RNA sequence: GCCGGUGUAGCUCAGCGGCAGAGCAGGUGAUUUGUAAUCACCAGGUCAGGGGUUCAAAUCCCCUCACCGGCUCCA
């Protein structure tokens, strides 16, 4: 809401004089700039007050909580802890601190206690402006070398602001809440490492993550959601639901075993995608997992991509082989397998190509970052004129595929020519224009990442948003002016002379491993019927009805339903529980009643008992 | 790769200088069951690996490996 502030009076005074509740407002916006409520303008103006509902207020609260934590840490550790930076982030805030003796998560409780004390002290948070030299002197005196470094090296302004709360002083732009008493609902979350200024070359500091909210309910909800997210972690659900396994000790980190049920899901996805691709004229191929090292010299990978490639294997005959990190050189070979005419273009070569990349052990993460994975890869060879239509087709295809998995929201990024590039500027301009035209014609919103393209061509990346509003990059469409040149591939144009085709690398799911990991979390392990490895399970009320259950089983099986049967000598409740835990979508219960009437009783996971029906009725239900 | 944490039965974890434990899962038997856990018994171990301290190490110390939270990287 808007409020008039007179010269010489603080916004806080203005709020009070207007009879408004000061507790509702956190900071004020003056011409787009956020200021403290203690701000006192030198001439009359209008300020826009931000209440606790405003996202920016929450950021301020969290920023203030970061300061609160830093103050608590300074009280406990004194100058054995040097403060650096502590901004708000989407989950809350962090503060990077250089501790003389490393702390661990056990210490967080103690820090939280001290924070609570400071909240109770209700210290006023005051802003003060000083000249840069004064600030440098101040932080030298306070023995905060990182603040001094920032002032000396990074901050351009001649006048800087500091914030004081009790004995604690921090260099900060602000704004902040008016006093430490305003911070009530907070929680410290984790301790981790973080490089000073984010560079590997610099010293590693300790980063403490925390969060804060205006109400206790919001904090509780946040913590609850974190717990829920943990439960749908694909690394927990995967082995639990017998989908996949990663045995780092006996097989190796980042190498995935697809268990029968996971493979079933993958197969369904593969076949679904294959059908869509073949409809659009893609030709599937299959290529080796290793190749002569010369292939990778020609492609340039050995020079440019070396650090992600497993080392060369040399045979006793002295031949060198390398495990493939990419499929593209092989698809070039497919293109080269005969002389191509312009009439053959666009040529769309697809492969579910398994590649291996050496990733540092610390970056491996379940199925999301692995060392061996299968891309839903394809390379489109076309003329420069055909690029636009191909991209349009690709965007529609990508949308169609992702929508099938319940991903409706996307962010699209177009990355353009970087400083170092191959190919002519004319070709780049033509290609970038083609990509833009394609995006515009489809009517998709996108952001341009200027200069972020690969050295070999511009690209379009698609980020999907999952059920927990997290974003993931899967699809990528990359133009390549480099490989066709390096391998000297050509097609015969209408003019009967040789031309170099444009190559488009593209993946829609990215890799089956990564996409599967995302899907597991997106669905929390409860796959929709069409993907579920087991669609239905038949539960005889007692073993007396096993024969009838077997008949139902045969019937459903012959109709193509993925069905199982639980013939154990257990109570129905137990069998239902087992089926629920396995997240099987349909439970079919058969007992005396069903045998007599020739029906089945259907229970849908998450919905409960649907009553009894004929098998045909269930089949109808399943096809909806 | 870097910082911190954690490695005990298939899984989740307790034990933290003095006999290797529980629950779930698994096996066997009994029970023949109506919409989220029937009972009993059995089996299951290089306490991640290696070295050291100690009369004695799952437990304390060191090294290695793996994983987890992040950072960097990748996309």
Average of per-residue pLDDT values: 89
Global structural class: alpha+beta
Which consecutive residue ranges, at least 5 long each, have pLDDT under 50?
none
Shape: globular
What's the CATH topology name of the largest domain? Answer: BirA Bifunctional Protein, domain 2
Instruction: Supply Rg.
Output: 31 Å
Query: What is the number of independent domains?
Result: 4
Distance between the termini: 50 Å
Name of the CATH homologous superfamily of the largest domain: Bira Bifunctional Protein, Domain 2
Beta-strand residue fraction: 25-35%
Number of helices: 19
In total, the number of strands is 33
Helix content: 25-40%
Instruction: Report on the biggest sheet.
Output: 8 strands, mixed
Largest sheet, spatial ordering of strands: 15-20-21-28-25-24-22-23
Give the CATH architecture of the largest domain. 2-Layer Sandwich
Class of the largest domain in CATH? Answer: Alpha Beta
């Amino acid at each position: 809401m808007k409020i008039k502030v007179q010269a010489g009076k603080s916004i806080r005074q203005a709020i009070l004089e207007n009879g408004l509740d000061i507790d509702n407002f956190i900071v004020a916006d003056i011409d787009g700039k956020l200021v403290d409520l203690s701000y006192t303008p030198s001439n009359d103006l209008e300020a826009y007050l931000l209440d606790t509902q405003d996202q920016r207020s929450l950021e301020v609260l969290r920023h203030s909580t970061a300061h609160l934590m830093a103050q608590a840490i300074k009280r406990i550790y004194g100058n054995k802890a040097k403060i650096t930076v502590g901004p708000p982030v989407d989950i809350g805030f962090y503060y990077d601190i250089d501790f003389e003796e490393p702390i661990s998560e056990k210490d967080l409780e103690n820090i939280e206690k001290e924070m609570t004390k400071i909240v109770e002290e209700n210290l006023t948070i005051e802003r003060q402006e000083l000249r840069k030299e004064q600030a440098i002197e101040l932080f030298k005196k306070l023995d905060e070398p990182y603040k001094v470094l920032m002032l000396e090296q990074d901050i351009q302004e001649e006048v800087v602001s500091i914030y004081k709360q009790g004995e604690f002083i921090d260099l900060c732009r602000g704004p902040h809440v008016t006093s430490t008493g305003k911070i009530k609902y907070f929680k410290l979350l984790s301790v981790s490492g973080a490089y000073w200024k984010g560079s590997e070359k610099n010293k590693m500091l300790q980063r403490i993550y925390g969060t804060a909210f205006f109400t206790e309910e919001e904090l509780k909800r946040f913590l609850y959601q974190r717990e829920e997210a943990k439960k749908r972690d694909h690394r927990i659900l995967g082995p639990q639901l017998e989908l996949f396994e990663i045995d780092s000790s006996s097989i190796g980190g980042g190498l995935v075993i697809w268990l029968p049920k996971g493979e079933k899901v993958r197969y369904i996805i593969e076949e679904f995608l294959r059908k869509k691709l073949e409809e659009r004229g893609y030709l599937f191929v299959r290529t080796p997992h290793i190749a002569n090292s010369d292939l990778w010299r020609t492609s340039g990978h050995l020079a440019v991509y070396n650090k992600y490639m497993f080392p060369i294997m040399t045979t006793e005959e002295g031949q060198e082989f390398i495990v493939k990190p990419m499929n593209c050189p092989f698809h070039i070979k497919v293109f080269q397998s005969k002389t191509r005419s312009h009439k053959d273009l666009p040529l769309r070569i697809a492969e579910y190509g398994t590649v291996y990349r050496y990733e540092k052990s610390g970056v491996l993460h379940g199925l999301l970052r692995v060392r061996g994975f299968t891309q839903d890869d394809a390379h489109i060879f076309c003329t420069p004129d055909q690029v636009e239509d191909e991209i349009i087709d690709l965007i529609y295809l990508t949308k169609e595929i992702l929508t099938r998995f319940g991903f409706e929201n996307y962010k699209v990024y177009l990355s353009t020519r970087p400083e170092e590039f191959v190919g002519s500027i004319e070709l780049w301009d033509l290609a970038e224009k083609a990509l833009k035209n394609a995006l515009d014609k489809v009517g998709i919103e996108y952001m341009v990442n200027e200069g972020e393209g690969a050295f070999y061509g511009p690209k379009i990346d698609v980020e999907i948003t999952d059920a927990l509003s997290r974003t993931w990059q899967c699809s990528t469409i990359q133009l390549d002016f480099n490989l066709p040149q390096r391998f000297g591939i050509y097609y015969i144009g209408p003019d009967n002379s040789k031309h170099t085709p444009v190559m488009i690398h593209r993946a829609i799911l990215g890799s089956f491993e990564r996409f599967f990991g995302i899907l597991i979390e997106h669905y929390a392990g409860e796959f929709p019927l069409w993907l579920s490895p087991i669609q239905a399970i038949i539960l005889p009320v007692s073993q007396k009805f096993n024969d009838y259950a077997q008949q139902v089983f045969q019937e459903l099986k012959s109709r193509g339903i993925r069905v199982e049967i639980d013939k154990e000598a257990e109570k129905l409740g137990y069998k239902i529980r087992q089926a629920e835990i396995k997240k099987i979508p349909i439970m079919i219960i058969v007992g005396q009643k069903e045998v007599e009437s020739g029906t089945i009783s259907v229970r849908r996971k998450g919905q409960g008992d649907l009553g009894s029906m004929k098998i045909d009725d269930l089949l109808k239900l399943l096809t909806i």
